[in-house]
């Protein structure tokens, strides 16, 4: 709760707290700039739904030679998923682009530029263990019994 009130004070500009809190909150989102790039591929988040591959390419061209600029779209609807990837020839060009475009406006939205991580291999979840209906704590396979009584009793 104290964090939320301090954050609200900072946004409203009437901070009675020390300026140290402001610098801590400002560096909270930009901590990725401390990570050195190992790949020339960048992940761009916060894109507008109106951002196209061409506008993404044009925005990142001043920082070096682009190999690819791709906005990721939903297969079903064809609409943007609000993120994309940009690939440069060298890591140095990608560093310049990250420093120059992180937390900048593109098509009216603030975008964030981070290093792209490799795609993880799909690992299906194992099915949950079957439980006996008579004893929910048992992990043995469920078995069914039938009642041999026929007709009404009583």
Explain how this protein is built.
With 154 residues, the protein is an alpha+beta fold. It has a domain of 82 residues: Alpha-Beta Plaits, CATH 3.30.70.330. Helix content is 27%, strand content 21%. It has a 5-stranded antiparallel sheet, with helices on one face. The protein starts with a helix and ends in a 39-residue tail after the last strand. About 8% of the residues have low confidence. This is RRM domain-containing protein. One of its GO terms (molecular function) is RNA binding.
Structure described in brief:
The protein is an alpha+beta fold. Helix content is 27%, strand content 21%.
Please describe the structure with a list of short key phrases separated by commas or semicolons:
single chain; 154 residues; alpha+beta; Alpha-Beta Plaits; five-stranded antiparallel sheet; Nucleotide-bd_a/b_plait_sf; RNA-binding; RNA binding
């Amino acid at each position: 709760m104290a964090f939320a009130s301090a954050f609200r004070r900072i946004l409203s500009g009437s901070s009675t707290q020390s300026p140290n809190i402001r610098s801590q909150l400002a560096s909270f989102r930009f901590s990725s700039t401390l990570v050195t790039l190992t790949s020339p591929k960048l992940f761009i988040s916060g894109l507008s739904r109106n951002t196209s591959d061409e506008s993404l390419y044009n925005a990142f061209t001043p920082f070096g030679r682009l190999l690819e600029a791709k906005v990721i779209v939903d297969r079903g609807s064809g609409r943007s998923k609000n993120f994309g990837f940009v690939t440069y020839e060298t890591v140095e060009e990608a560093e310049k682009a990250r420093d120059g475009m992180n937390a900048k406006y593109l098509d009216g939205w603030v975008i964030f530029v981070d290093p792209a991580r490799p795609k993880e291999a799909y690992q299906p979840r194992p099915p949950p263990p079957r439980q006996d209906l008579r004893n929910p704590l048992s992990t043995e396979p469920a078995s069914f019994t039938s009642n041999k009584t026929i007709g009404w009793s009583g």
